[in-house]
Amino acid sequence: MSSQEIASQQELVIEAGRTERQYWRDLWKYRELFYFLAWRDILVRYKQTAIGMVWALIRPFLTMVVFTVIFGKLANLPSEGVPYPILVFAGMLPWQFFANALGECSGSLISNANLISKVYFPRLIVPTSAVIVSFVDFMVSGMILLGLMAWFNYVPSWRILTLPLFTAIAFAASMGVGLWLAALNVEYRDFRYIVPFIVQFGLYISPVGFSSNIVPEQWRLIYCLNPMVGVIDGFRWAILGGESKLYLPGFGLSMALVVLLLWSGIWYFRRMERTFADVI
């Protein structure tokens, strides 16, 4: 049988859901682009700065000092049996990661407009690489926490082994909200002004400078509608140990919201992705 006869007998099969599965395979296929974008953004952020990654230490450290003075010294709020700077920084770590990720994700598609409009690749790679850049800052800032523990001779309990789990939850929350903002920012450029407001407002309504235990019992479940409450409480439970306790109903609610944000963020991003090259 000739090659022409074989070709004429080939059938084209259209299978439901094949495009979707191909997309997720393409994410792995284009993994080198993911590494390149993340590494490029890390280099751009620190290459032309005088003190490099020290900037990732200065900002959270100064914020920790301010919150310790205001909430720990002046307001004299409880510290769950640990030095107040450690309490603050245990909440500062996940919040700083979340806030940085929102800033990076929201503008990631716009800053890569030339690449998006000319070359095909799964666009989900762009905001994901932006979150990885924020994760590098998170890891660098973790050195401050280690320094505080050494300064105060504080030894964490076995709960510290669960910290990677809560880090993954913080990553999911950052990705969920970040995908929403990245897609919306392409369609509505007003979000470049809205994102800094969300970050600033969220800092004050999240338990970063204080323990969520000071919230009255009748309001705690409502307070946990902020998904970062569960994330921050989880970090403190893992890092502080001892008197630190998880408010399980509120933590469960926060985790459900994180899952909802991640799922809906991926869904909305994929829905809008086909129009990015035309709109951007």
Q: How does the helix and strand content classify structurally?
A: mainly alpha
Please give the oligomerization state of what you see. Answer: single chain
Net shape:
globular
Overall number of strands? 0
Low-confidence segments, ≥5 residues, pLDDT <50?
A: 12-17
Keywords:
mainly alpha, single chain, 14 helices, 280 residues, 0% strand
Map the helices and strands.
Elements: H1 3-9, H2 18-29, H3 31-46, H4 55-74, H5 84-106, H6 108-111, H7 113-118, H8 125-151, H9 163-187, H10 191-205, H11 217-223, H12 227-240, H13 248-273, H14 276-279
Structure notes:
The chain is an all-alpha fold and 280 residues long. 74% of the residues lie in helices and 0% in strands. The protein is built from 14 helices and no strands. Helix 4 packs across helix 8 and helix 5 runs antiparallel to helix 8. The chain is globular. It starts with a helix and ends with a helix. About 2% of the residues have low confidence.
